[in-house]
Sequence to fold (84 residues):
Amino acid sequence: MTPGHTPAWYEICVSGILEDRWLRRLEGLLVHRQPEGVTVIRGEVDQAGLHGLLTTIRDIGVELISVQKIDPPAGSGFEDHKKE
Fold:
């Protein structure tokens, strides 16, 4: 696989608490609403998926705080895939 097509784990933070109606657009991702008014979205996507996710965030109209590539969570099976 080329680097852009290899999935990786990302964490995206946005300002505000996303309403339930937006969660369908983030299906398959982990969404955590923090009490201080930040929503954290985590998941495994390739570059095309990441760009699509960023487009969705833009379309929802929330402020993007950060995007980070992160280590996969323990037990996801992804850490074994990275060693190949």
Helices lie at 20-23, 47-60, 78-82. The first helix runs from residue 20 to 23. The longest strand covers residues 8-15. Residues 78-84 have pLDDT under 50 and may be disordered.
